[in-house]
Design brief:
Blueprint lengths: L1 H7 L5 E2 L11 E2 L4 E10 H6 L9 H19 L4 E14 L5 E15 L2 E5 L3 E6 L24 E6 L17 H22 L10 E6 L1 H15 L1 H6 L2 E7 L5 H11 L1 E2 L4 H12 L1 H4 L10 H16 L4 H12 L12 E2 L14 H11 L13 E5 L9 H10 L4 E5 L6 H15 L2
Parallel strand pairs: 7-8, 7-9, 9-10, 10-13, 13-14
Antiparallel strand pairs: 1-6, 2-3, 3-4, 4-5, 5-6, 5-8, 11-12
Helix pairs in contact: 4-5, 10-11
Length: 437
């Protein structure tokens, strides 16, 4: 709690405005963004709607923001209500084929209401926050109050929707296609900064830094951006890039699939149609001569249409889709299988389970193109949280990063508690909220 108090009592600059300072949705074609909504919300609205699975966050968040309200009230001599400003916007980027595409993202920063009038608070830093795996468009940052946006302190926080969500929900999401996700995210950062510079009442504080963060899939996307920054060092300098702080990411899809194959089972089966669809779509030259059906077992093929329709609809979250795997694909059950696990023999064909087969070798070549432990050397530090009991994203991912890059730039932090994937990510959020980057 002391760390939370120290974090939340950092000096802030309040920028007074009148109602005309908050601009209606508009365009700036020269800077490449289009605002689709610009709203201000009292923090109490967010706190009242925290999902039950994150209820543990409610009390510390409420206490921290109450303290910030009190601090500002002492400075301003007026009753205020702390809140946040969320600006959703469209921006230009490129798709998996290098073609132009319009994507969506959201920018968040803190502020307060006094006498019913909104006032921005000057951000101290910028955070590019990459969201975790979703399959429902309702979970995209532009469509919800993502919990991650409240754990980054007094920052301008940019959260991309990713291809396949927001304004591109009709498209398949390029899951674990790290190069395209990195480029999309950097374009979102650029447009988001310009948007804030044009529409925020006050600029970012002198000496600001850029931090990258994310959990699960978001962790891998954050390190993909880290790689891009460190292989385009002039870009890292332009953005005052400081470091990355991530949790439980599939930094090496090769290592992840290796572990699944070695274990013979998986606790997050939706990953297979997500990854398989991406690799066939993104690398047709490698996967030519094979079909997706060739990758799957008969048990999965019987439910393939239903599962892939659920994914394509963007109406169902990962829990709902994983449950279909358990209910309709899982046929082999014994004492070695947890309630949420399924044997790979029920999902993948014998050929896909054989690393010497032509289709499996081709699949691995696609995965290797997205292995973040290869093809670069970090120039900025990264802190990676993980749990040895994570069955969704095996700890081998974090250890692989350390093994390749060493301790000069990589710090591993094992979870203090023996917990699963979701809890590890939640504990990381608590720590980032408490101690900062």
């Amino acid at each position: 709690m002391l760390q939370i108090i120290v974090l939340m009592m950092l000096t802030v600059v309040a920028c007074t405005s009148d109602e005309n300072d908050i601009l209606p949705p508009g365009n700036d074609p020269e800077k490449g963004y289009e605002i689709t909504s610009d709203m201000q919300y009292p923090m109490s609205l967010f706190l009242a709607n925290i999902p039950q699975e994150y209820a543990a966050f409610k009390e510390p968040l409420e206490g921290a923001f109450t303290m910030r309200e009190s601090a500002l009230e002492q400075v301003l001599g007026a009753d205020i209500q702390i809140g946040f400003r969320k600006v959703s916007y469209k921006y230009s980027s490129t798709d998996v084929k290098g073609e132009p595409i319009t994507l969506s993202a959201a920018a968040f920063w803190l502020g307060y209401f006094v006498g019913g009038v909104w006032n921005d608070i000057q951000p101290e830093n910028i955070c590019l926050m990459e969201h975790y795996t979703i399959t429902s468009d309702a979970e995209a940052p532009t469509n919800t109050f993502a919990l991650e946006m409240f754990i980054t302190g007094n920052t301008l926080t940019i959260m991309p929707d990713y291809i396949g969500y927001g304004v591109t929900r009709e498209l398949p999401h390029p899951y674990l296609h790290h190069d395209v996700c990195a480029i999309n995210s950097i374009d979102a950062l650029t447009s988001g900064y310009d948007l804030f510079d044009d529409n925020g009442v006050c600029g970012i504080a002198d000496g600001w830094k850029l931090y990258l963060a994310g959990a699960s899939q978001g962790a891998a996307n954050a390190i993909a951006v880290h790689k891009y920054m460190d292989t385009h060092i002039e870009l890292a300098a332009k953005w005052n890039f400081a470091s990355s702080n991530c949790s439980s990411g599939p930094y090496s899809p090769v290592v992840t699939i290796d572990k699944y194959l070695a274990d013979g089972k998986v606790a997050y089966p939706v990953v297979f149609p997500l990854v398989m669809k991406t690799m066939f779509n993104a690398y047709p030259e490698i996967m030519s001569g094979f079909t997706e059906e060739m990758a799957y077992a008969q048990n999965y093929l019987a439910a393939k249409a239903e599962i892939e329709e659920m994914i394509a609809s963007k109406e169902y979250n990962t829990a709902a889709i994983n449950q279909v795997f358990i209910d309709k694909v899982r046929k082999t059950v014994d004492d070695n299988l947890a309630n949420d696990e399924i044997y790979l023999t029920d999902i993948l064909s014998p050929e896909m389970l054989d690393k010497e087969s032509p289709i499996c070798k081709a699949f691995y070549r696609c995965l290797e193109k997205n292995d973040l432990t290869k093809g670069w050397t970090p120039k900025h530090p990264m802190k990676l949280h993980y749990s040895p009991l994570d069955a969704v994203v095996p700890q081998e991912n974090s250890h692989a990063v350390l093994e390749v890059f060493g301790t000069d730039m990589v710090t591993l932090q094992e979870s203090a508690l023996p917990v699963d994937h979701a809890t590890t990510c939640s504990l990381w959020m608590v720590e980032l909220f408490s101690t900062g980057f």
